[in-house]
Structure formats: C-alpha cells, structure tokens
Amino acid sequence: MSNPDAKRELAALIDAKARIFTDASDSIWGYAETRFDLKKSAGLLIAALESEGFHVERGAAGMEHAFVASYGQDGPVIGILAEYDALSNLSQVCDATEKQPLEADGNGHGCGHNALGAGALAAAVGLKDFLAKSRNGAGATIKFFGCPAEESGSGKAFMARDGVFDGTDIMLTWHPWTETRIWGVSSLANYQVYFNFKGVSAHAAAAPEMGRSALDAAELMSVGVNYLREHIIQDARIHYAYTNAGGASPNVVQPNASVLYFIRAPKSSQVRPIFERVTDIAKGAALMTGTKVEIEWDSACAEYIVNDTLARTMHENMRELGELKYSADELDYARKYVATLPEENAKNVAALIKKSFPDIGQGQADAMASEPVQGELFPYAMSDEAMKGSTDVGDASWIAPTAQALVTCYPTGTVSHSWQWVASGKSPIARKGLIYAGKAMAMTALDVIDDPSIAEKAKQEHLERLGGERYHCAIPKDVTPR
Ligand SMILES: [Zn+2]
After folding, report:
1. Which sign does the torsion angle of CA 405, 408, 414, 420 carry?
2. From ligand 1's centre to the CA of 390, what distance in Å?
C-alpha cells in the first residue's frame, strides 16, 4: 500500500481538475453516439488526453474511434478501460421526471457510459499529474484504452483479438451504478451471430411449388433450437430476434430471412459447442426447406475473470475514500426519481441490501433501501457466480488481472437502460460518482506502482483462475466490426 499522504495528494489533484472531467461527462451525454460511430465522444476524450500530455494512437484494432492514450515509459503498465457509447431509443430530456424524449427515436446514455469514460479520464489524468509532480514523470506507464461499442458491439473483444491490451500488467475500470461496491462476479460469455437464409421467391398462390421459403427455414430453426434447450447446461441462455422476416407481403414466398442469435453460458468453452449445435440446426433447417444459410458473425465476448487480489486493493481504497455524501438538494433530486418507480423496487433493493450486508436486520435493510441514494460502500464480496449478462470487459480481463468498481451515480432502485438513468445522467450525483471512481482507480494504480508484490500476486491468481487456458477470441479473424 502507498502512504496515505501520497493518496491524499493524488485525490486532491483529481479534485483540482474535477470540472474538466464532469464537463467531459456532460458533453458525451449530449453527443449520445452509439456503437462504433463515436466521433465526437472519442474526439473529446482524445483532445483532453492530448492536452494533458498523453500520446494517442487512434484507430486501434482497425476501429476508427478506438484508441490508446499513453503516458510514461517505465514501471508497471496500468491499463484503464473507458467506454463512451450510448443506446438507441433512449433519448430523454435531462432532469425531466417522466419519460420525455428529446427527439423521436434518438439515442441516450442509458448505461452511464458518459460518466464511465469521464471517470476513466479522471483516473488517468490524476495519476499522470501525480507522477509528473512527485516522481518526475517516472514509475509507471499509463494506458488509457478508448473502447467503442460496449453495448452489443464488443469493441474490447476486437481490441483483445488484435493484441491491443497485450503487455498490460493490470487493468482497472468501473461502471456507474446505484450502489458503490466492487464488482465481484463473473459475467456470461456470449456469441452474437446472424443466420441469413436465402431461398427463392415465387407467387405464394399461383406458383408456390416454385418457391423456397427462407422464412420457413428461419422458423424451423427456432423450433429446432427450442428442442435443443432441454439438452444444454441449465446456465446457458439462447435468445433470438428476427432482423429480417422477408417482407410484409404474405402472397410472396419470402426469399430472405435473418435471425440474430445470442448464445450465452458462464464460460466461452461452454458457448462454443452450443453454438456448433445451433449452427447444425440452422443447416438442418436449410436442408429441410431447400434454402441456403450463411453464418455472419456480429461479435462475441468472453466471461469476466474476477481477481480477488486487485479487487481487495481497490476495495481498500474505496474504504479510504469513505462514503459518498449528498446535500439536501441532491437527496430531493433523487427522491423525485424514486417516486417514478413501482413499489416493489424498494423491496428488491431491501433484499439486495440484506444479502450484501450479512450483519443487518430487515428493519435496517428497509431503512437503507428507503434512502433516495446509496452513499455507503457495500461490503467486499466475491463469488464464482456469473451475473446474468455479458460485457466485453470480459475479454480485457483475460489479458491482464482486472478490477472493476461500481459507483453510485443514480437514484436508488432505478435500473440501467432506463429513461431515469438518461434523465439523471448529468446530475450532481453522477458527477460526484465519476470523480470518486477516478480516485478509486488512480489510488489502486498507485498501490500497484509502489508495491510490486500486488501485481505479482494478482498475476499468479490470474493464471490460476485461467487454469492453463489462454485467451482465444471467439470472433473469427476475418470478421470486422459491423
Ligand atoms: Zn454499461
């Protein structure tokens, strides 16, 4: 552990530039760009990093708005992961307390990646300022990874596949949330693949015998996959959406149909054989209908590899930072959003709190759940369970030991990908959260810089958790981001 005075100095350096980071978050909220199309959001972060003396390499892994910003040349390589993509159909008036789109079908920051990227910026710049001021700029190499398309595009998987994260000693990141704690669970590995069926069109009444229906094939594939579900591991998940059902005319034998499948399981090695069986079913459906099927990869991500060593180090720093405190105005602000939620949310929050704080009774859990914002640091907990979702942070976590914090940025009980998150994404609560996250990551990095045994232990644990396996990106080499 580094000495507390050094940490205080580091935190003060982040506070001194807080406005730069919160303004970055607010601006990216306004840009609300999605997937790989992130010109303004990436541009803003790149400009900020360059003006702080970072050297920026653009176009990482062939993606225009992926980048690596580096500072320093010696010591451990500290990776900081940043995201800045929004979600479609979540446009929302800022601070409104009802669903109110800014523009029809517009995008919105429903997952808080505006704050995520800005918090990562705070960590990188704060750490750089500390090294520049107290260590003549020496002692570590900071690498800020600008990662596009976390929301379903798996930008980090493409970056991992192309070796962008190689050579990193530790990886740090965070996610804006409704509570503050270490992310101590794995996530599901996920393959995202289109099955495109091609048939022959014909008049469905006059000459159906001339037609070969791609839509029939897609439907038969769904039937086949429904039968498959009984014979795969319980923890796997297969879901699909028709992205092209051929057309709106029933009197045409549909010559084209496409279905996008997500195939998930706790480990990539479990997804692979299920994917192969789904592929066989698609081929079978094509054979049955006299159509052809083409398999088109969208993306994939690996499961998240937790690292107890690094997570504990980060948790200790969050303990040093103490609880997040809110003014009466901030509490009132949050209360307005809590009032928009169904009543059972409070019960769910109380149950989560009860589970997270093993020593408290139901009354205390209910009382905490009734707070409009959760400022307290939740106890450290790590489990081998996988949360029922996927993230491309998983791919980065295969390359280097990774720690991830969740930090309160939103009112109690609100959920990600909701209009409430978009509406409150520029609130003082979100701004406070991103600064806290920046400090937690920078302080953890400083511990790793000052005590090489942390990274050594984290690496040893990382190797053990991988059990001799090496990172293999599920996305085939010739597939480029869509
Ligand atoms: Zn997210």
Report:
1. negative
2. 10
